[in-house]
UniProtKB/TrEMBL annotation:
Keyword terms of this UniProt record: ATP-binding, Cell membrane, Membrane, Nucleotide-binding, Transmembrane, Transmembrane helix, Transport
One example GO MF annotation: ATP binding
Cellular component aspect of the GO annotation: plasma membrane
Name of the protein described by the UniProt record: ABC transporter ATP-binding protein/permease
PANTHER family the record matches: ATP-BINDING CASSETTE SUB-FAMILY B MEMBER 10, MITOCHONDRIAL (PTHR43394:SF1), ATP-DEPENDENT PERMEASE MDL1, MITOCHONDRIAL (PTHR43394)
Cross-referenced CDD domains: ABC_6TM_YknU_like
Pfam families: ABC_membrane, ABC_tran
Span of domain ABC transporter: 354-589
Lineage of origin: Bacteria, Bacillati, Bacillota, Clostridia, Lachnospirales
Subcellular location: Cell membrane
Segments passing through the bilayer: 26-48, 72-93, 150-171, 177-194, 260-284
Keyword Cell membrane: yes
UniProt membrane topology term: Multi-pass membrane protein
Length: 596
């Protein structure tokens, strides 16, 4: 599949969030309503304070009221306390709701992404770097969680607080309210300008983080190469540069707000000044009671703080925007290679006939085709050997059998059925593959061999290890088949890893066995043993073997010689020797070295 960097998503970011809140939406709406409610309750303290001041502290009858109407005083005081406690309880419950829903979204999206990534095809893996993918499922996803848990809450909090208090201000004294609120549109304009500046910064920041994570991941997994070339200092410096770059971009992003902050802060700070000046005049003129003045000043923060908070919210919103785009890119990505809608189930073993019909192939990011008009047939149970100089297209050819890639022209058939007509799982279950680059899991040797079919018992594992000439060295290990091989099979030689990988491919009893230079690192004697074992497997199996050694190819029923993506010679050992072409020359060359 061609993974487009600029993808149009079927849903907006907020719709996508909403979709992933399924099952928790009602709870989330309750949370949002709770936010509005506890912000309304913010009014109660200044309201009751205002009334207490007017009735019992500053009014002309204050002292008299206190003596004759002390019940009301305590009543107001108790209500103030009750509402304060109630507000505290709602805030607590509300925080729990936001946290709970955000964790649910995080869990759901993370699982979904992992599932998506697992099902992607080869092009996806060559398009995305591991560090970048890791950033998407960790840092980017956390920005999404933060949106649900904090940003949305802050938006509701700021707007509801601002709105409720503005209405209350107008209710108390519209002239006073207007004087205070008239400057607020400037803040929105400043925030709008800020948004335009900070949005690209967050996109850049996110790329820098992915770059840094990629360096870290590559260095950790490639530590042996680093050590072999004594490049530790170089790698440390490279990471340091990426780290510094990230830190600088982070700083730059923060600085953007600092450019706008003084204006917003000045406007917010102007509020108490306006309050003092205009409120004072209104008090003197008798247009405002002392109680209302107290209520106004007790709530002035509720107008100023949302203004201050706005920058922060916009900043976090842009972070979410940059991160969610990256997450959604994976979320909505579809592999090109997937089951055809009419793919029929094929649970039985294949006979093992393989046919390439005028197959050409080019990688999507490649400039030129790597395979040209490849045609050949392998009968069930036969062994075909593919040879040719490095880069001539051998691996590309065998990758078309399990549909890791699709031919750009022509058709690959198994048992006379185009491979596209099988379900991918049915097709791949019937193929045992040992790749050039051996990757063993951090598991026991037994676990690694039984990876494709965990139902097989130790006895069978031992049998497959015998086929691949691995049983001798495994039994010499102190813990035998229980030996845990580290990440990438550390602690084993290249040839040992290859033999375990071969046993793993055989352990699924495949109808088609594909070996990509699997015995290149084993000695001649061991390779002979393996070839002999492969001829006497206790199940029928067509073998496709990429090999460079004549000792392997001469036993094959058919040999394909490839040059520059084309088949230049085809036949068995005797036929190709008689041709006196490239194969003959190779035999001459190797006979002097290997075959005596
Ligand atoms: N994922 C890829 N994307 C783009 N080009 C690729 C990719 N993999 C291989 N190629 C190119 O395709 C060509 C054939 O590569 P391939 O791995 O099939 O050769 P090979 O014969 O198996 O080589 P070797 O013997 O070294 O393993 C090479 O030119 C290689 O650069």
């Amino acid at each position: 599949m061609k993974v487009k960097k600029e993808t149009l998503f079927p849903k907006t970011k907020i719709q996508w969030l909403w979709e992933n809140m399924k099952g928790r939406r009602v709870l989330y709406v309750i949370g949002m309503l709770g936010t509005v409610v506890y912000n309304i309750l913010q009014l109660t303290v200044p309201y009751y304070s205002g009334r207490i001041v007017d009735l019992f502290l500053s009014g002309a009858d204050a002292w008299k009221n206190m003596r004759t109407n002390s019940g009301l005083f305590y009543h107001l005081l108790i209500l103030m306390i009750v509402f304060t406690v109630l507000r505290g309880v709602i805030v607590y419950g509300d925080c729990m709701i936001y946290e709970h829903v955000s964790q649910t979204v995080l869990y759901r999206v993370r699982n979904f992404l992992y599932d998506k990534i697992q099902r992607q095809d080869m092009t996806f893996y060559s398009t995305y770097r591991t560090g970048d993918l890791m950033t998407r499922v960790t840092g980017d996803l956390d920005a999404v969680r933060h949106m649900v848990a904090w940003v949305i809450r802050m938006v509701i909090e700021s707007f509801s607080l601002f709105g409720v208090v503005a209405i209350y201000f107008f209710y108390m004294n519209w002239k006073m309210a207007l004087s205070l609120l008239i400057i607020s549109p400037f803040v929105f304009f400043i925030i709008y300008l800020f948004k335009n500046k900070v949005a690209p910064m967050h996109a850049k920041l996110r790329e820098k983080l992915a770059q840094m994570n990629t360096y870290a991941q590559e260095n950790i997994s490639g530590n042996r190469v680093v050590k072999a070339f004594a490049r530790e200092a170089y790698e440390i410096e490279k990471f340091d540069r990426a780290n510094k770059d990230y830190a600088e971009t982070n700083k730059e992003t923060s600085m953007v707000w600092l450019k706008f902050f003084p204006y917003v802060e000045s406007i917010a700070n102007l509020m108490p000044v306006v309050m003092l000046a205009v409120g004072g005049v209104f008090l003197i003129r008798g247009e405002l009671t002392m109680g209302d003045y107290v209520a106004f000043s007790g709530l002035i923060w509720a107008i100023a703080n949302p203004m201050r908070q706005m920058g922060n919210i916009m900043n976090e919103f842009q972070r979410f925007s940059a991160a969610s785009k990256k997450v959604m890119e994976i979320y909505y990505s579809e592999p090109q290679i997937k089951d055809a809608l009419d793919a029929a189930a094929h649970p039985n073993r294949f006979d093992g006939k393989i046919e390439f019909r005028e197959v050409s192939f080019q990688y999507e990011d490649g400039d030129l085709p790597v395979l040209h008009d490849i045609s050949f047939t392998v009968k069930p149970g036969e062994t075909i050997a593919i040879m040719g100089e490095t880069g001539c297209g051998k691996t590309s050819l065998i990758n078309l059998i399990p549909r890791f890639y699709e031919p750009t022209k022509g058709e690959v058939r198994i048992d006379d059925i185009p491979v596209q007509n099988f379900r991918l799982s049915d097709l791949r279950k019937q193929i045992g593959l040992a790749t050039q680059d051996v990757l063993l899991y951090s598991d026991t040797i037994e676990g690694n061999i039984a990876y494709g079919d965990s139902s097989i018992d130790l006895e069978e594992v031992e049998k497959f290890a015998k086929y691949s000439a691995a049983s001798d060295f495994i039994s010499k290990m102190p813990e035998g088949y229980d030996t845990v091989v580290g990440e990438r099979g550390a602690g084993l030689s290249g040839g040992q890893k290859q033999r375990i990988s071969l046993a793993r491919a055989l352990a699924v009893r495949p109808s088609i066995l594909i070996l990509d230079d699997t015995t290149s690192a084993v000695d001649m004697e061991t390779e002979k043993q393996i070839q002999e074992a492969l001829r006497h497997l206790d199940f029928s199996c067509t073998k496709v073997i990429i090999a460079q050694r004549i000792s392997t190819t001469m036993m094959a029923d058919k040999i394909l010689v490839m040059q520059h993506g084309r088949i230049t010679e085809m036949g068995n050992h005797e036929e190709l020797m008689a041709k006196k072409g490239y194969y003959y020359e190779l035999v001459q060359l190797q006979t002097g070295e290997d075959l005596v």
